[in-house]
Amino acid sequence: MRRIIAEVHVPIIEEQYDIFIPNNKSIKTVIKLFEKVINELSDGCYQIKPTTLLYNKDTGIPYDPLITVKDANIVNGTKLVLL
Questions:
Q1: pTM for the complete prediction?
Q2: Which pLDDT score, from 0 to 100, does residue 1 have?
Q3: d(CA 74, CA 7)
Q4: What would the CATH number be for the domain defined by 3-82?
């Protein structure tokens, strides 16, 4: 398992975070991980939702929740948006 670091923007709370993620996990799993971490880091300001999607910040295209981080071509420094 290789870990990468991604920049995650969270517009709803106007914050961004650099978060390490394993590249062999599905996008769906990573979204859940992001939500849990961001909820804790924001002292509960970010509320976990079942409909959250992950987008590429540069292209605006959402990632398929069923593919892995590696298959989505997310690499170190990729800018993501959690909506």
A1: 0.93
A2: 75
A3: 11
A4: 3.10.20.90
